[in-house]
Specification:
Elements: E1 4-7, H1 13-24, E2 29-32, H2 37-42, E3 50-53, E4 58-60, H3 62-71, H4 75-78, H5 86-114, H6 122-143, H7 156-170, H8 174-180, H9 182-191, H10 229-235, H11 269-278, H12 281-293, E5 299-306, H13 315-328, E6 336-345, E7 348-358, H14 363-366, E8 375-380, H15 385-396, E9 401-403, E10 406-408, E11 410-416
Parallel strand pairs: 1-2
Antiparallel strand pairs: 1-3, 3-4, 5-7, 5-8, 6-7, 6-11, 9-10
Helix pairs in contact: 1-3, 1-7, 5-6, 5-7, 6-9, 11-12
Length: about 425
């Protein structure tokens, strides 16, 4: 009797790793890309991979589905894929979450833009690329001292991470990435030869050059053949004498951002953004921020809260709402930096964060976004320790958020830079 049906597209590492589990451990699970009536009725969010098991049991999210599939395998056949103790299992989940949420959420848009599946946006592309390399550096440093990501034996953390990285190696990362990160290169060669893959990566070779976005060529206007060239020449009006020529109207000047009137600050944001993106947040970036970036004469700090938290549902949808807000704030990129986080869980979450803004008023920076009034802005005093602690926590995302005296875990978030 079949254990159920897995829905998903084989091109996605989130799905093909699950298919490999089914094949390697010979699980009696059907795999299909056909989103049939059963799928339509069970999964209103239309997300894949998705699984329907016996007696209508349903699952979404690749980590949850993999956990269930692996629970169906006898422990003596798992070979340590889930670690040897609770600490290793927790570390495996840590890497699964990192690669599933942070890595793929950055890599996939880069691939889509390069392949022309979505419009190319240089700012977004640069931001996602920077995030990919931050994660790659973290992995490479870990693998400089260990054969595998968790302990010294192959685990599911290695298998899933290799699957997600392979998408980039085939496309937008390619051979230069492996050269830049030699420990990842060594690790990937080892993991890709594991029996689990059933030879799937035997012929794998990263292309020499990465896939990159190529702007479409402008089409040349074809000359009309409706009349002979000589006739065109005769019909052409004579040019007026220079004195009689009317000057073309000057192009309308591009409207200036209101904060441009404040002039250039002594501490521009670019260096801070570089430090934040490339250095350890708590150890290096935040001390640098308070020492070199924050000047209360030039900048102000603001606590930003979404006004309608009671209307929020799923955490990923709340995070998408933040992403849309940030996209509409793009005209103010030069004048502010900040983080908004989603705290809580599905159907019980909220949005809060902190921003550094040029000048002493938040309105000129935020009113470039039509939905800015959906947020509440509270000016902060940067000289107070509680302000520094709040800003540090919002920029670091490594501690729970305190809301009405209750500590709430951070589920997701985005950086505006």
């Amino acid at each position: 009797m079949s254990l159920g049906t897995l829905y998903g597209k084989n091109i996605s590492p989130r799905t093909f790793i699950l298919i490999d589990i089914i094949k390697h451990f010979k699980l009696d699970i059907k795999v299909t890309e056909d989103e049939d009536s059963a799928y339509q009725s069970k999964f209103p969010l239309k997300k894949t991979p998705a699984f329907i098991g016996e007696k209508g049991y349903t699952l979404t999210e690749t980590i949850a589905i993999a956990s269930y599939f692996l629970s169906l395998v006898p422990k003596d056949k798992l070979g340590g894929l889930l670690g040897k103790n609770a600490q290793q299992y927790a570390s495996i989940l840590q890497y699964l979450s990192l690669m599933n949420q942070e890595w793929l959420d950055a890599l996939v848009p880069i691939f889509y833009m390069a392949a022309g599946k979505i419009p190319f946006n240089k700012k977004n592309n640069d931001e996602f690329t920077s995030k990919v390399h931050v994660i790659a550096k973290l992995l490479d440093e870990r693998l400089s001292n260990f054969t595998y990501l968790v302990g010294e034996r192959l685990t599911y953390a290695d298998l899933y991470s290799a699957a997600t990285i392979s998408l980039g190696l085939k496309t937008v990362l390619a051979a230069p990435f492996l050269k830049q990160y030699p420990n990842i290169n060594r690790w990937f060669n080892t993991v890709s030869k594991a029996p689990f893959w059933e030879g799937e990566f035997n012929d794998f070779k990263a292309p020499a050059e990465p896939l990159t976005f190529t702007p479409p060529k402008k089409e040349k206007k074809e000359k009309s053949n409706a009349e002979p060239a000589a006739a065109k020449k005769e019909a052409a009006p004579k040019k007026a004498a220079p004195a009689e020529e009317e000057p073309e109207p000057a192009a309308a000047p591009k409207p200036k951002h209101p904060l441009e009137a404040l002039g250039k600050p002594k501490a521009p944001l670019d260096e801070w953004k570089r430090v934040y993106s490339n250095e350890e947040t708590r150890e290096v970036a935040l001390p640098w921020f308070w020492k070199n970036q924050y000047n209360p004469e030039e900048w102000s700090l603001w606590k930003v809260d979404y006004k309608y938290n009671d209307e929020l549902t799923l955490t990923f949808m709340s995070n998408n709402l933040v992403g849309g807000f940030f996209n509409r704030l793009s005209a103010s990129t030069k004048y502010m930096f900040g983080c908004l986080v989603v705290y809580g869980e599905n159907n019980n979450n909220g949005i809060t964060g902190a921003f550094l803004v040029r000048g002493q008023d938040h309105v000129p920076a935020f009113d470039v976004a039509p939905d800015w009034e959906s947020y509440e802005f509270t000016k902060l005093d940067g000289s107070k320790e509680e302000t520094k602690e709040f800003v540090d926590n919002m920029f670091a995302w490594d501690k729970p958020v305190e809301v009405n005296g209750e500590k709430r875990e951070i589920a997701d978030g985005k950086v505006f830079k």
